[in-house]
Amino acid sequence: MNALDLSRLRPRLPSPLEPVEDERFARRGLTLLLKREDLIHPDLPGNKWRKLALNLREAAGRPVLTFGGAYSNHLRATAAAGRLLGFPTVGVVRGDELAGRPLNPSLARCAADGMRLEFVDRATYRAKNDPATLAALLERAPAGAYVVPEGGSNALAVHGCVELGRELAGAADTVAVACGTGGTLAGLAAGLSPGQRALGVPVLKGGFLGGEVRALQEAAFGGPRGEWSLDERFHGGGYARVSPALEAFAQDFEARHELAIERLYVAKMLYGLTALAEEGAFPAGTRLAAVITGAPEAGARSTAQALPSDSRRPRSPDPA
């Protein structure tokens, strides 16, 4: 199967842009819009479709080797693409201690979609971009495998996310998106029109994402593109951590708008955007678009809530 045949998956593009009534924004003269990337495709929703599409065309039906943690949205999307388009997939999973345990629902879904899971120790995972380490992984992969980086973020992914910005041209003044690896923000900002800006809300601490976004834009375009910024206050303590305050906010937002909210990315972005509105960060008349990058997987909320110790939490992001 040639991976260029992506149109047969019938993605819903452009994704819908839906206004919502929320008094926390309305009383400050702000308009809130939801960019429903979660509706693009049931198996490859949101930024996953946009980041994978050009990479899969480049792979042209070859096996795909990629990387992620135990709860990686990116691994699930890549495995689903392999099943739907008929190419082999290999997922290199951080944490060799997971090899002897029952698969969690996320990895079980990957395996059910035909992905071969290879668990590696954390030192090897950190060195995954080292040529010798990558060569060793490729030796064990199907011949001719095409490598997609963690989270799918590379120059092709950034170009794929440019269209997201173009779809929002003239529709919003500020566009907020949750950030894991920075690829979606890098492309979104480049696709927006002059006068629009992108706001990234990192879902993990560390303060490194600014450099990652700049590097991705350099690789994709040869230099900076668009107006963007990061607000690093809303990671909630780190990746996959869902505080009681965040959980309460997400449940309230769901009740207000009858929309299931994914906790690890989307909830943090919406929480941050609401907090900024309440701080007076946006002048009256501002149109705010919140990018809904994905829907919660079945059981995802209880999984996030049931992680009591740092040792059981994923340590780094794999998506945005």
Question: In a few lines, what is going on in this structure?
Answer:
This protein is of the alpha/beta class. Helices cover 38% and strands 15% of the residues.
Describe this structure in words.
The chain is an alpha/beta fold. Helix content is 38%, strand content 15%. The strands form two sheets. The protein has a six-stranded mixed β-sheet. A four-stranded parallel β-sheet has the order 5-4-3-6. Helix 9 links the parallel strand 8 (197-202) and strand 9. Helix 8 packs across helix 9 and helix 10 packs across helix 11 (266-279). Residues 301-320 have low confidence and may be disordered.
Provide tags for this entry.
alpha/beta, 320 residues, 12 helices
Number of contiguous helices: 12
Rg over alpha carbons: 19 Å
Taking all residues together, what is the mean pLDDT?
A: 91
Instruction: Please give the share of residues in helix.
Output: 25-40%
N→C terminal distance? 28 Å
Compressed to H and E, one letter per element, the order equals: EHEHEHEHEHHEHEHEHEHHEH
The SS-based structural class is: alpha/beta
From the spread of the alpha carbons, the general shape counts as: globular
